[in-house]
Design goal:
The chain has about 140 residues and is α+β, with helices and mostly antiparallel strands. The chain has a single domain (about 5-135), classed as HIT-like (HIT family, subunit A), CATH 3.30.428.10. About 30% of the residues lie in helices and about 20% in strands. The protein has helices at about 5-10, 10-15, 60-80, 125-135; strands spanning about 20-25, 30-35, 40-45, 85, 95-105. The protein has a five-stranded antiparallel sheet, covered by helices on one side. Helix 3 packs across helix 4 (about 125-135). It is globular, with a radius of gyration of 14 Å.
C-alpha cells in the first residue's frame, strides 16, 4: 500500500526535500537525512504506508526492528558515535519510520533531545555520496 503524497512511499521529489535514498533493507528503506548536524543521521522507513507499529504483525515488527538494528550497526561502524538516539514520530507524515540520530560527546545537542530539523548543516552531493558509501560498506 502506497500513499501518493508520501516521500517514503513515492520517493522522487517528495523524498528529495529531506532525504536521499540509500538502499532497500528487508522490510524497509534506508534514507540519509539531508540535514547532517548529527553526522550519519538516517531514517529507516517501513515498506508500506502504515501509521503505527500496531498496524503490522509481530513478524513484520520484528523484521522492521531488525532493519533498524542493521542500520544502527552500520552507523556505529561508519561514524563511531558515542550514542545513537532513536525517534519514532509521524504526527504529520503518518508513515511508520524511525530516525537514527548519532550523538557525539561535546558536540551539538549532547545530553539533550535532538531537534527534528535544526537546518544547520547541509553537505555537497559529493559529501553525501561519501557518507552513503560509508554506510553501505558497513551494512
Amino acid at each position: 500500500m502506497k500513499d501518493q503524497n508520501c516521500g517514503y512511499c513515492m520517493r522522487g521529489e517528495l523524498l528529495d526535500k529531506f532525504g536521499i535514498f540509500i538502499c532497500d533493507l528487508d522490510v524497509s528503506s534506508l534514507i540519509l537525512f539531508k540535514e547532517q548536524s548529527h553526522p550519519g543521521r538516517c531514517i529507516v522507513a517501513y515498506k508500506d504506508h502504515v501509521s503505527e507499529i500496531v498496524n503490522i504483525s509481530d513478524a513484520e515488527r520484528n523484521a522492521f526492528f531488525a532493519d533498524v538494528d542493521r542500520a544502527a550497526k552500520a552507523i556505529h561502524a561508519a561514524f563511531h558515535p558515542n550514542k545513537v538516539n532513536y525517534g519514532a514520530y509521524g504526527d504529520t507524515g503518518c508513515h511508520l519510520h524511525m530516525h537514527l540520530v548519532p550523538k557525539y560527546k561535546d558536540e551539538f545537542e549532547w545530553g539533550g533531545v535532538f531537534e527534528m530539523n535544526p537546518g544547520k548543516t547541509y553537505l555537497s552531493d559529493a559529501e553525501y555520496a561519501e557518507m552513503i558509501e560509508k554506510i553501505k560498506a558497513n551494512l
